[in-house]
Design a protein that fits this description.
single chain, about 500 residues, alpha/beta, FAD/NAD(P)-binding domain, Guanine Nucleotide Dissociation Inhibitor, domain 1, Guanine Nucleotide Dissociation Inhibitor, domain 2, 3 domains, 5-stranded parallel β-sheet, 15 helices, 19 strands, about 35% helix, about 20% strand, binds flavin-adenine dinucleotide
Amino acid sequence: MKAVVIGSGFGGLAAAVRLQARGIQTTILEKLDAPGGRAYVYKKDGFTFDCGPTVVTAPYIFEDIFKAANRKLSDYVNLVSLDPFYRIYFHDGTHFDYTGNSERQEREIARHAPQDVEGYRQFMAGSKKIFEKGLIELGDQPFLKLWDMIRVAPDLLKLDAIRSVYSYASKFFTNEKLRRVFSFHPLLVGGSPFRAPAIYALIHSLEKEYGVHYAMGGTGKLVEALVKLFEELGGTLRCQSDVVSIDTQGKRAKSVRLATGEVLDCDLVVSNADLFTTYEKLIDSKSKKFYSQSRLQNFNWSMSLVVIYFGVSKKFPDLKHHSIILTERYKELIGDIFNRKTLADDFSLYVHLPSVTDPSVAPEGHEAGYVLAPVPHLSEGGVNWEVVGPQFEDRVLRYLDQNLMPGLMQNLVVRHSINPNYFRDTLGSHLGNAFGIEPTLLQSAYFRPHNRSQDIHNLYLVGASTQPGAGMPGVLLSAQITDKLIARDFNLQEHLNS
Ligand SMILES: Cc1cc2nc3c(=O)[nH]c(=O)nc-3n(C[C@H](O)[C@H](O)[C@H](O)COP(=O)(O)OP(=O)(O)OC[C@H]3O[C@@H](n4cnc5c(N)ncnc54)[C@H](O)[C@@H]3O)c2cc1C
C-alpha cells in the first residue's frame, strides 16, 4: 500500500510516521526547502531560531508516536522541564510566576490576592475534571457523527465547560490580574479567551500534570527526530515538492500532482496543508460537495501573528525562558484582533528566550529569541503589512527595550520577522491565519473539520484546522485519530503498540 502525505508540519510528520510504522509505503511532499511547517528553523550567524512552537506540553503524545514504531523519544530528543512555566508581566510593572507546583502557585496567588487562593484550588479541581474528560477520554476520538457530540454534551454542561474560558476563570478569581493569568491560554492556540470554550481550561491541568518542556537545541530537534524516525522506518521525505492537485476517480483519490508535472500514484492521501487551501487549490470543483466554497468561507479563522526574531550581543539574566506581557486593555485588545480586525496602538506580547536554557542556540555572550504579537488575520480593507509592518515591529522592539530588555535595540545583531503575509504566501494559510480555524464551541469536536474528508473517501486531513485542534498536542492527536481511521477503513490492525 502507498500513502502520500502533503505537508510536513507536526501533523503531517506524525501521520507519516504512524503510517510508515504500519508498513504503508509513505512519501511526504513538502513545498518548502525544509520540514516543520510552522516549526521551520531559521539559522543565521550562529543563531538558531525556532520560527513557531516553543512551549512543549504533553510529551507523552510525542512518546506515543515513537512507541508506535517501537522506539523511545528520549533516544532522539532531550526534553527538559522549565520552571517557572511562564512569567506574566502586567501593565503596572508587577509580574506573576506561573508554575506547576501547587504550594508555590498558592503563595504567588496570595501575593496578588489572598482571597483567591481557595478559588485557585477549586479552579484546578474543575480543570482536572475537564482535562480527564476532554483530553484523556475524548482527545483521540474522531467526532464523525452528530451523535458523538450529543453523547458528550451533558458531561460538558455538567463541567460548565461550555462558557468562555475568561468567564469560567472569573467564577473562581475575583482579582482581574488572576482572571487574565488563568484565561490567556487559548491565545497560545489561536483562540480568544472570551470566545474559546472552557474546555481549554484543561490546559492548566495538562501543564501541571506533565510540565512545560523545552527540546534542547530547539523545537526543530523534535522535527528532526520525527524525520529521522520516519526515514529509519523506510519513509521518503521530499522537500521543494509543491503539490498542485489531488486527482480523483469517482469519490477516491488516485494520485497527487506536483508543480513540476510529476504524478505520484497512491492508495490514500493525507493532507496537512491548510484546510481551506487543500479544498480551494488541490481539489477539483466536482469533488467538493460538502466543503463548498461558502461552507469554507463561513468558518471563523484564527488570528495571525507578527513574530520578530532577534539575536542580541548582550545577556538578559533577569528574564525567564517564557515571558508573557499583558496590556492593560486585555479584553479590548482581544476584541480589536478577533472582532474589529484592527491593529491597535498597544499590544500583548510573548517573548521566547531559549538561550537562557540552551547555550547552543546563540554564540557565547549573546541571546537568541523572538517576540510575538497576536494581530488580526488578513481581511479586505484591513492592515497593509507592507506599509505598517516595519513601524509596528519597531514599536514592539522599542517597548521591549524600554520595559523588559534594556539595550536590546543597540545590541541587535540579527533581526528577521514574519507577519500575516508570510502565513498566507509561504505557508499557504487562508487569510494568513496562524492557527487554522478558530477554536470556538461551534468549531470544536463534531463541528470542526473531520479527519476523514466527507467528499473523497480516501483523503484524510490532519493539522491545526482539523479535529481536535491547533497546537503541537492537538495536531499530533489529529494524526493519531487519522491513523485509527485509516486502520479501520483499510482493515488494518487497529492498535499497533500504542
Ligand atoms: C509563531 C507560532 C508559535 C506557536 N507556539 C506554539 C507553542 O508554543 N506550542 C504549541 O503547542 N503550539 C504552538 N503553535 C501552534 C503550532 O505550531 C501549530 O498548531 C502546529 O505546528 C501546526 O502544525 P500542522 O500540522 O497544522 O502543520 P503546519 O505547521 O501548518 O505545516 C503545514 C505544512 O504543509 C506544507 N504545505 C502546504 N501546502 C502544500 C502543498 N500544496 N504542497 C506541499 N506542501 C504543502 C506547508 O509548507 C507546511 O510545511 C505556534 C504557532 C506559531 C505560528
